[in-house]
UniProtKB/TrEMBL annotation:
Membrane topology: Single-pass type II membrane protein
Cofactor(s) for this UniProt protein: Zn(2+)
Secretion signal, residue range per the UniProt entry: 1-19
Gene3D superfamilies: Collagenase (Catalytic Domain), Neutral endopeptidase , domain2
Family: Belongs to the peptidase M13 family.
Ligase among keywords: no
Any Pfam family hit: Peptidase_M13_N
Name listed for the protein in its UniProt record: Neprilysin-1-like
Peptidase M13 C-terminal domain residues: 564-658
Amino acid sequence: MEIIFRTWCLLLFLSFVAGSKIIRSVDSSPNERILNYIEQHGNYSADPCEDFQNYASGRFADLHTDDGHLFMQDHIWSQYIVKLQRLFDLLKDRVFIDENSVEEKVWRFYNTCLTAPNNTRSLRHYLELASPSKNLTWPQFAPFGTLWPKHQFNWMETAAHLERYGSNIFIKLSIEPNERNLESLVATVRYPLGGNMNDVAQVKDLLISIGVRSGRASLLVNSIIKLNSDLQELIKEDHLRDYSRRDIGRGSDHPVEYDDYDSLDSYRQREVQRVPSIYSYLEMVLDPSVDLNEVLTIIDPNYFDSLKRVIEKYDEEVVASYLMVRFSLFVQDLDGSHLNSSSSDCAATVAGQMELASDLLYKNYYLGQEKLKKYTEEVQQIFEAVFRSLMVRLEENKLHFDDDTISQFQRKLFAMTIRVGKLPNNLNHRRFVTKFYDNLSLDADLDFAKAQLNVLKHRTQRYLDQFKGVVSKDTYLFLPEDKNPEPKLHFPQSVIVLPYAMLQEPFFDPQSHDVFKVSLLGFSLARQVMSILHPIKKTTDTKYIYNGLACLNQTTESKDLQLRLDDVASLGLVYDAYFGDKSEFSQTQPAFTNLPLKKLFFINFAQMFVGDEVYVDFGSFDSDKLRLSEAVKNLPAFGEVFNCPTTALLNPPEKCEIF
Ligand SMILES: *[C@@H]1O[C@H](CO)[C@@H](O)[C@H](O)[C@H]1NC(C)=O
Ligand SMILES: *[C@@H]1O[C@H](CO)[C@@H](O)[C@H](O)[C@H]1NC(C)=O
Ligand SMILES: *[C@@H]1O[C@H](CO)[C@@H](O)[C@H](O)[C@H]1NC(C)=O
Ligand SMILES: *[C@@H]1O[C@H](CO)[C@@H](O)[C@H](O)[C@H]1NC(C)=O
Ligand SMILES: *[C@@H]1O[C@H](CO)[C@@H](O)[C@H](O)[C@H]1NC(C)=O
Ligand SMILES: *[C@@H]1O[C@H](CO)[C@@H](O)[C@H](O)[C@H]1NC(C)=O
């Protein structure tokens, strides 16, 4: 009782502070603020018909040199972090009676990040905590004068062990309930991305920083780089890897990945069930009680054997050092792992690594039932508008799919739902989250690496634990994901999860005009919805994909045609949803601006594509400028709205029709 009461008081206290502390500029409405945001970035002396990115957001880079934001998504993420930080800081003054409360755990992790001594963040310390296996150190840490017992080293075991911190070095694994047979699970095994190691000096410095002598480091680094490039060759040979999608608008090299069951179907033909080498690896990662009935090997079933051949060419010490370097790079990429981590880095660390706890606190403090309900309704309304506009396209069936295909698409579409926030819909959130972190123990000593590795390991463990019991299509599944603020479609539940981080201005404010909400959120959702139409290989309904792709392929070379197709189709869908006959959105010119509604729609939409990066790694992403250009130039309305001559780059007479 005492504990419950205290928690109550804390919540009351937090809500009280929430009411009094949120600073808003009182005299501006959300519409004015959003308009101001986009007008600031626009470069209206540019010609929208030639370079829409420059027109809509040409001043973005200049305005954000200080805060380092490269995308609008950085902006909303940092706003989300500011809010969480304010909230985490408030936890400081609380006396926690209940050691097991979510608040206490969040505070411990956050506070450890803020105050732990620098030596607890050294790479060496991380590596000492995450050793290759129970009784074995990394070669570099063998006691002076002793030989590292290389016969005890097992690369698979070590890779599996490191995978438990979320570091996928040799394969990327995901597990899901099997849609066809609910009693069984399906593991999908893919090539990991990452692992670019072009910078010899960086790897050498890394080795030296953990105590390898310079001469030894020089020798070792060459073998490590050689091994890495052998592995990259293996991955490059893979001709099947075409299902990874990049986070929209973010320069991340961790693509969002999802599985389309039908597309997986076609792999099933290639699948080799119970590939022994893959199974032995999975058994090392998974709890023995997890019963995997099927393994879908998206990667080449021979990959593991090829991997083995490559690895066995090298001395154990090199392989161990390679894993150590890859793990170190993983650690260096983690929020909070740097010596100079600021309070906001620490808030981001908690937000990304204890995401369910952060969601709970965020919801209680900033949203509450009422507001969450309001947001959910708004989001639902936009989702339904996109849904309707896709339904209309399917009914019109301009590309003459057969009836089966149409009904298959419709069935998938009807099965889709949307959820705001990562927490499950039908469970008590506090109870759920408390239970989720039940086994996470963060002791009071201020050791950051230890705390972080604990949190990461726990997170993976919880992900894997879910598969011990019966999992059905409707079971809530926690999926550890990148922190990027973007909606994600979870298969096979067919639920689009919209993280709280996206409910920030200027991306989304329920009080703002529909034109703002639909052009950004609508587009993001449409892209997720589109993915249900992704190639269903070697079957008839790929026609639209191939027609569309072939047409889009003719304009400018693309590194990722599927992404381009999704962009083009999604913009068409949201534009229809807003301005089409069936629209329920207001078409009247808003009073707060002279910009015509349709221009406003396009300009706001373009805020999603402000990046100026040219992606070279993996060669798989087009630049934001190219993506935006392709999206608008294939939509007839764009040329009309901006009065573009037909000679203009972005208003070619021939447009690609996707549906
Ligand atoms: C704005 O557009 C003009 C015309 O294209 C261009 O010369 C100028 O560099 C742009 N300004 C910025 C800040 O990008
Ligand atoms: C680790 O070392 C301990 C004691 O040195 C030994 O009892 C144990 O069997 C070893 N474990 C493994 C997995 O080798
Ligand atoms: C920890 O490292 C940071 C960055 O190098 C430095 O600014 C700070 O003073 C160090 N703190 C201590 C206590 O040495
Ligand atoms: C913190 O250190 C990292 C790596 O040493 C560096 O990339 C980053 O710019 C630094 N951040 C700040 C705010 O100094
Ligand atoms: C959590 O901890 C309890 C007690 O230590 C243990 O029995 C249980 O198996 C753990 N649960 C998980 C999922 O690790
Ligand atoms: C796109 O064009 C390139 C070069 O013309 C060609 O190699 C490729 O097969 C085409 N792709 C599609 C999907 O049409």
